[in-house]
Amino acid sequence: MIALKVLHTTTYRFNEHVRLLPHRLMLRPRESRELRLISSNVTVTPHADLTWAHDVFGNAIATATFQKTASNLVIASVAELQLDAVAWPLFDIAVSAMSYPFRYSDDDGTDLGALALPQFADPAEVLRSWAQRFVRGSRTDTLSLLKDLSVGVSEAVQYQSREVEGTQTPAETLNRGWGSCRDFAVLFTEASRMLGFGARIVSGYLYNPEQQSVGSSDAGSTHAWAEVFVPGAGWITFDPTNRSLGGFNLIPVAVARDIRQTIPVSGSFVGSTGAFAGMSIEVRVTP
């Protein structure tokens, strides 16, 4: 078990005073058997009224409502937690799901719903054909298939940090041969869905004390990965960017069907056309 502190600061700068509309904040880490949240505090400058709720996925959402105009907006999150995930996890997969293909139970299939349906059109079947390459026969070991698929993403795509908003489609990532961690996560998730698995996107933080993991130039950074539902084992964590299995160095904040649903800070303002001057993000993950 390791104790960690996560600091995440988002700063918006404006060339004039603007009217800030409500902002949606997803900054509170998700508690689980492997993650114990000791404390979590979000501060907003200028002052904002914060109201909390959980979305359909159980993510903690804060809505910041402002009363005054401002030329700067600073949203700072500080979380202290204990992470208790092993580096080489073992999974008790149900006998019925040990070999692929398998069929989800009626209840699991219903509950997974859209999480088992591809979110991107694939008219030329580029993604489907690529995913099928990892199926080694009529009966393939399920966990081995998913491991091979995760490794296959990093073999087919070169990591490249992207500061621009948005995510590439899986076909774009395969065709271009490069992408960021969110592109890796989307490609793996969509490929898993093409094979019939229920899968979801996860966003949060990467703890990288030795600075050996891809996706962070420091001891910590924001990060995106994926989880696949396998009967018996439940949600299994895959980080295709780093070819890793399990969440020993991952701090989840949000899970969702689509990566657009995991944006840490989103909102808008009312001002002149040239009012927006820029933004900066600082993330630190420290013991």
UniProtKB/TrEMBL annotation:
Q: Which SUPFAM superfamilies match?
A: Cysteine proteinases
Organism domain of life: Bacteria
Among SMART domains, the record links this protein to: TGc
Mind telling me what this protein is named?
Answer: Transglutaminase family protein
